[in-house]
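input
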Amino acid sequence: MDAVLSILEYENLERIWIERVEQTVREGRQKIDRTVFELHIVRTTENGAAYEDTIEHLSESEREVTGLIFALAGYLVHDLHESVPFILLDSLEAIDSARIAELVEYFADYAEHLVVALLPEDVQALDDDYNRITSI
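output
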């Protein structure tokens, strides 16, 4: 996550991570311990002060990128790249063209086959080295 936030230059996002915690919840008349995951987002202000934020305050672009990176992490951690060497990225319209190009380059390092569905104006930001399908 840190590498992608740096590459994409989300300047006021300092850090994003998921923490696995045990939480006691009531189930019927019993209290049981459950594992839950908490999303932590740390932002910085212009004067350098850090504060924890919530996902509701992220821009649509920031939410999309966060979801994609956690999906990539799960893909790699669970060794899916060994049995499914394919990633498809779609509906990236919330992310600007320059950041899409950076994401494609980053994801290309982790998947043998990467397919990205893009709007024509977003395709122009990609290197010419990528194969393109313009009609089916």
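quick obs: The chain has one domain: 2-123.
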